[in-house]
UniProtKB/TrEMBL annotation:
Name of the protein in question: Uncharacterized protein
Taxonomy, superkingdom: Eukaryota
Cited InterPro entries: PBP/GOBP, PBP_GOBP_sf
Alphabetically ordered keywords of this record: Signal
Leader sequence segment: 1-16
UniProt keyword Membrane, yes or no: no
Gene source species: Aquatica leii
A molecular function GO annotation: odorant binding
Coiled coil: none
Length: 140
């Protein structure tokens, strides 16, 4: 009986720990830093593959700016493809996005996917999704 009570108590404590919000919530600068770490291995490859202006890439990585430039849009698509977060139609692999994109959640994913899903240009679709994400996490 003691073990049953102890087990129930430990489960209740563990559940409470999982539902308490973190004392230091993630900030927009944390999101930007984590995103940069995540995409770093693919930056050079995607710059070369798309011919994007490196100034646009620098602004994106330091200020999360989304210039309206065709090569930049395809640069974002290249990053998304390299991270394996997109389906061939440009929609996001929800489970992967939620696991690896800082501050992503199901509400954000649904909202951003809905805003971009009617666009047939896959580079533009990823660009629209990215802008929505930046707005959602307070970087836009």
């Amino acid at each position: 009986m003691k073990y049953l009570l102890l087990t129930c108590f430990l489960l209740a404590v563990a559940d409470a720990q999982l539902t308490v919000p973190p004392s230091n919530p993630i900030t927009s600068s944390d999101v930007l830093r984590l995103y940069n770490i995540m995409v770093a291995p693919f930056i050079s490859q995607c710059i070369c593959a798309t011919g994007v202006n490196p100034v646009f890439v620098d602004r994106f990585l330091t200020k999360f700016e989304f210039p309206n430039d065709a090569c930049f849009k395809c640069f974002l698509k290249c990053l998304a493809t390299s991270l394996s977060i997109t389906h061939p139609d440009g929609s996001m692999y929800v489970e992967t996005v939620l696991k690896i994109i800082p501050s992503a959640n199901a509400t954000m994913n649904t909202q951003c996917d809905n805003q971009s899903k009617d666009n047939l240009d896959l580079c533009e679709r990823i660009w629209l999704y990215g802008q929505c994400y930046a707005s959602f996490v307070g970087l836009a």
